Amino acid sequence: MVKYKLNNTPAMLKPSLGELVRSSFHSIFKNKSRTFLTSLGIIIGVTSVILLTSIGNGLQKYVNDQFDSLGSNTVFIVPGQIFNDKGGFNNSSQNRLVTTRFSLNDVATLRKGLRRSQILPLSQAVVDVKSGPILKKAKSLVGVTSDYGAANNALPSSGNGRWFTKDEEDKKSNVVVLGYQIALDLFPTTSPLNKKIVIKGKNLKVIGILDKKGSTFGGPSLDDFIYTPIGLVFDINGNQDIQSMYVKAPNKDLVPTTKDEISKLLLKKYDKDAFSVFDSSQLLSSINAIIGTLTIALSGIAAISLVVGGIGIMNIMLVTVTERTREIGLRKAIGAYPNAILLQFLFEAIFLSCFGGLIGIMLGSLGAFAINKVFPAIVTPGSVLLAFGVSSAVGIIFGVAPARKASQLSPIEALRYE
Amino acid sequence: MTKLSSKKDNPKVILELRDVVKTYTTGNTSFNALNKVNLSINQGEFVSITGPSGSGKSTLMHIVGLLDIPTSGEVLLNNLDIAHFDEKKLAQIRNVTLGFVFQQFNLLPKTSALENVMLPLLYSDVPQHLRRDLGVEMLTKVGLADKLVNTPSQLSGGQQQRVAIARALINNPKIILADEPTGNLDSKSGSDIMAFFHQLNQKEGRTIVFVTHDRDLANEADRIIIIKDGQIQIEQHPRHVET
Fold this sequence. Notes:
The structure holds two protein chains of two kinds. Chain A is α+β, with helices and mostly antiparallel strands. Chain A folds into two domains: 17-64 and 288-416, no CATH class; 118-248, no CATH class. Chain A has helices spanning 17-29, 32-70, 104-113, 148-151, 166-170, 180-186, 230-237, 255-267, 280-323, 325-333, 338-371, 381-407, 411-416; strands at 74-79, 118-131, 134-144, 175-178, 196-199, 202-209, 226-229, 244-248, 275-279. In chain A, α1 (17-29) crosses α11 and α3 crosses α8 (255-267). Chain B is α/β, with parallel strands linked by helices. In chain B, 30% of the residues lie in helices and 28% in strands. Chain B contains seven helices and ten strands.
């Protein structure tokens, strides 16, 4: 005969936490397919939230890295008003039609006004490029100065040739520096160095290949650009228009004053809406704000499926409570007080939901890992915690109603239930 | 109505009902399932409650089992009026003082006999490390030491009811309440179960109250309470009844 003495201080929680966990585990795994199907909503919801936030995070990091490589002392001058008053991008379509073109005079004005800064004009042409039998259509030919490469950390690394010289710039020599990707596209099997490519009937010699700048997303990639002396692009375009300018301030701290001076100089000639002067941090914070908003919005949409999943859990828990009415009656008869029943069913709901959450986190992380091969995606501990927190919250919120229903059943009616 | 004294010398009243009324109201009509019932059960007594269906014997059983509270009147357990205790306190008393045996066994499906027997301990203060041993001891006592891991579907009806009895006994209750305990069993298993109840009553001195509509079974008790239309008609000692 087992002899025992009851504790003088009875346990606060009967059954204990461990027993609640164990019995929830037991009962949700008694019905595996139902458990899986019930959790599916949460699994899908959490997977998509994890995927979307990791893509958002990856994108943000990618953009930040790109800007870092441009240097934080760069000021950009572009036509039109690209920022609105609130610091976001201007979405008014009229401004897109602004066709301001800067000229060599503007470059000279800026060079005179900002003696300590480096002014880098850019003139672009969209051209078809041929290399032997290979034809690549609509590629960006970027006319720049001889100091552009060094100023933008874009010099070919050793063994990959060189940037063009001041002399070549002045003479409009037929030389090009290829971006990493376009070089691969035009010369898939051989080294492009000292080979010829043909643009608008001109034979251009490849003198340098740039390092990879990063993976591609949307829009044109820096890796797809072909750089050449600016005069050459003027000839191809048939004018001397300059689409944009980079200004390298002497250091990061002088960026604001440099911006002010540029604006002052340009306002003498242009209307204030005709151009924008901004630095990378400004652009970066705007882009980050957009990516952040997009990520939240997309995750919010994905979170709808968490709510749907929660309703699924509530539904199945209501079914479970009905199915197990007699069990509830029995438990009450043998001493389960209402809160013990409430906790039991609440734990089951939370378990279902967390089970879905964990699988979702696993699938989402695997998915993000796979996506990262082609598109930047980073799973952060924050998003994992958030997903797990949200799924347990869903379990609690949607588990309360069925659990309350169970706890309030009358023991006699529950025992009589057929 | 005079109460019959127990066969024991100094009978101690363990459970007493005083003027208990239970009224069920459906819409505008109300119906007295129990009408001024007075009843006292002594410690160590073997009592049967019988009567035609709809007589109120189940309601009486529920009141005695603290599963239901009377509309009016007093329910005294060990001289303590529990009629107006809250559900949490009642659950605690049911857990340690009462053991239930049902007609339908009410075992948890897909759950081993041992775990079924240990179920009431979940809601008790019995130390964790003793629970398994207690469960094994109870199953051994009902002769199912070899069926610890079997689930109810792997057991016969009689075996299932013995698991249920082991479960009722695990908290060492003073009173065993059985509602038609043999109703779902063949006569052989039924008489085994009854024999076991007698043994619990005689050897361990447990108070046994059982409900049956079977007069022969009812006659096995020390005292028969016959209930009809919500009132106790006769309380008699079976030896005074001609069968």
